[in-house]
Amino acid sequence: MKVLVVFALGLVALAAARPSDIIDFEQDHMEHEQEGVPGTAVEGEYSWVAPDGNEYHVKYVADRFGYRIVDDNVVPRMRSDVAEFDDDDD
Question: What is this structure's pTM?
Answer without folding.
Answer: 0.60
